[in-house]
Amino acid sequence: MLTVRERELLSLLEFKSLLSHFDVLASLNRRSDGDGEGAARQYLLEHLTEAGVSCGVSADEGILGFGRAATVRVRSASTVSVSDGFFEARDIPAKAWNFSPGTTEVVGVASVLSKDRAPSGVLDYLSSVRPVRPSQGGDLAGRVVLSRFFSPPVILDATSRGAVGFVICWPRGDEEEIHHSGTVMWWGTPSPEEASWAPDIPVVAVNKRDGDRLIGAAERGKLALALSSESEEEVVPVHRVEAAIPSTTGDPRFVLVGAHLDSKCLGATDNATGSALALSLAVALSRMEHRRWGVRVCWWSGHEFGRYTGSSLYARDRFDELEHNCVAYANIDMPGMKGATDWSAITAGPDLFGLAARTVLDVTGQRGVPAGRVRAWDQSFQNLGVSSLFVWSSQLPSNSSCRTGGGAM
Q1: Which of 145, 213, 212, 211 is nearest to 183 (CA)?
Q2: What does the pLDDT read at residue 409?
Q3: Which of 108, 148, 216, 377 fits a 20 to 30 Å CA distance from 251?
């Protein structure tokens, strides 16, 4: 059951404004170093200032990666006719993943990677890695890897075993869209020691249909592939917008709320919905008559094109303040997804799980269950001792046509 205070806050949320904020933010292509994100920042500042909320924008330099267009071409196939329609004298469209190197062309025989031939996680990779280059041999020497599962350790492991390219074959969903993300194992901006935790072979993705056909052809016989890709890395200012809503009691403690503002393409639910909700929430909280603790609301950049660069820079710059006064961190990412019906997965630290579970039960009537450890999604404050409260807040049912990849989001 919602408390009187919680009902008061809900009454202060302006839902028409929330939808209006979403419409504007979702119309902008918010690449981390582009004009669209700049326009989104200006929009946030104008509406926060109009509502009397103390706010500002700051920036620190960080490294960002931008994967661009890529192609996969079948050079030869021992069991596949080039006239079957799929391989007929054309490039298979692909996208280069962020922080993988661009290349004019690399050629190799395709090899389908199975999970029993790959590390299960970061620790598994770091404990077993044996650097190998194609000239030195290795079970994947000179091969272009095709894989339906992928992670930085898996890609780095394939590199150490001699692979010359890695093709991500999207595992689920029949949409034509080609998905892309990042491939590095560091967090934030890397130290010199961590700089090698990025692949030095091209990593590209194809959609599920093309990936299935490539894997099928490789499993039937010898398949030679050529990869080409465009990619760049930049050291640029990574911006953040911050709204500060002080306590009314003089207590210096605060709850930190974050939502990433940058997006691949238009990013309607990833994360225009979250950014719009954070704006409406900041305005509503500023209008509450009594606030035991303060609230800081931040809109991060460098999420999609870095490795949570904006939030990690904030953790670095505000270390003392966060360590002494930050009560908890609540992340808002991908709310409002079409057809979401499951709110039971609780992504919270053990000390805050009970609070999160009670909240979900009060609002949705569903009983929460632990979602397991989450080390992603701008969780840049755990090593400071700041507990997390939520990462995402909804999941799609297993039969939803909107699901993609291997997850429920």
Answers
A1: 145
A2: 61
A3: 377
